[in-house]
Automatic annotation (TrEMBL):
Protein name: Electron transfer flavoprotein subunit alpha
Source organism: Caproicibacterium lactatifermentans
Pfam family, one: ETF_alpha
GO molecular function: electron transfer activity; flavin adenine dinucleotide binding
Cofactor note: Binds 1 FAD per dimer.
Domain Electron transfer flavoprotein alpha/beta-subunit N-terminal: 8-197
Phylogenetic classification of the source organism: Bacteria, Bacillati, Bacillota, Clostridia, Eubacteriales
Cofactor(s), names only, from the UniProt record: FAD
Hydrolase found in the keyword field: no
SMART domains, per the entry: ETF
Length: 332
């Protein structure tokens, strides 16, 4: 497909209440810089139901233009409805580049969309840039178990499409700019939706943890030694107003649920403070935490690789250090 504009689009995924999920707003941050480099507008595309809150969020975080597809059929995610809505607006406006969050929903409809558009899709990116010479996007994503970073281009086809992991970019600062809002009256009929949602299973409240939205994360690894070891991390997290994360080793041992896993096959996080306790700092774990503002490592092995990426390190036994740390925090 020929691009009609140099515009860069960011898909703003919505929740059932019509507000924006974090990832879409985060993507407006790199989107701004990339749109400027491309010489086009930064366009937010909002699909959902009663999307006023999401449209306002996208506007105040720097979108130049917002395209809205609003309808009851978009309230609960459906692959067909979302794909058809996006296909409609893409074919009408033909942008050059589209960024979509690598959420379960984004990972579901983005490949179908790119297939319908006969263009490429780079999935699960952690870095975005533009090649100055050709103007093509350079999509960066981990490969070979996180041991290599692949840089991928889609030189011939448009739009260039990629999904980007949540938590990799920070939300952009709020602006006073007023975005132009275009409402597309596009609806899909029930017979176009080939699936029916019978039941929505929610994680139990005890298991749910919002790692991607957390400002403070206290994470534990194999060094925590068992499910009981996580109790002292939870005490510290509670004292700091944070949440508990984990390495894959701890999750695989069954000490804590997978929703707490940080890293390449877990969540990519970007808190203000990340405290890694008894975590060695394997590349697959490090891949998920480099967006943190400050990393503190507590490890009894002074040569553990986690100290290479930590801003502050404490060499010692976490069972001696963490309770003292918690008591000191409680005094503040
Ligand atoms: P270990 O590497 O065993 O480290 C334990 C650390 O605890 C050691 O450094 C030790 O010195 C320290 N320690 C022990 N006792 C104490 C104590 N009492 N006090 C202080 N320190 C102590 N891993 C992830 O975390 N997230 C992922 O998403 C992920 N995805 C992966 C994807 C692939 C394809 C592959 C191949 C691997 C992936 N891994 C992932 C696994 C990763 O390679 C490591 O095996 C894992 O991160 C190790 O976890 P760990 O640091 O808790 O354990």
């Amino acid at each position: 497909m020929e691009a009609k504009s140099k515009d860069l689009w960011v898909f703003i995924e919505t929740k059932e209440d019509g507000s924006a999920k974090n990832v879409g707003i985060e993507l407006l941050n790199p989107g701004r810089e990339l749109a400027n480099k491309q010489g086009g507008k930064l366009v937010a595309v909002v699909v959902g139901y009663n999307t006023k809150a999401a449209v306002e969020e996208a506007g105040k975080h720097g979108a130049d233009q917002i395209i809205v597809v609003d309808g009851e059929e978009y309230k609960v995610f459906s692959t067909d409805a979302y794909k058809l809505a996006m296909l409609h607006v893409i074919e009408k406006y033909a942008p050059t580049t589209i960024l979509i969050g690598a959420t379960p929903e984004g990972r579901d409809f983005a490949p179908r969309l790119s297939c319908n558009l006969k263009t490429g899709l780079t999935a699960d990116c952690t870095g975005l840039d533009i090649d100055d010479e050709t103007g093509n996007m350079i999509w960066t994503r981990p490969t070979f178990g996180g041991n290599l970073m692949a840089c991928i281009m889609c030189p011939d086809n448009r739009p260039q499409m990629g999904t980007v992991r949540p938590g990799v970019f920070k939300k952009p600062a709020e602006t006073e700019n007023k975005a132009e809002v275009i409402t597309e009256d596009f609806h899909v009929t029930p017979d176009q939706i080939r699936t029916e949602v019978l039941k929505v299973m929610k994680e139990s409240a005890a298991d749910f943890v919002d790692l991607e939205g957390a400002d403070i994360i206290v994470s534990g690894g194999r060094g925590v030694g068992g499910a009981d070891g996580f109790k002292i991390l939870k005490d510290l997290a509670d004292a700091l107003g944070g949440v508990v994360g984990a390495s894959r080793a701890a999750v695989d041992e069954g000490w804590i649920s997978h929703s707490h896993q940080v890293g390449q096959t877990g969540k990519t996080v970007g808190p203000k403070l990340y405290i890694a306790c008894g975590i060695s700092g394997a590349i697959q774990h490090a891949a998920g935490i480099t967006g943190s503002d400050v990393i503190v490592a507590i490890n009894k092995d002074a040569d553990a690789p986690i100290f290479d990426i930590a801003d502050y390190g404490v060499v010692g036994n976490l069972f001696d250090i963490v309770p003292v740390f918690t008591e000191e925090v409680k005094k503040l």
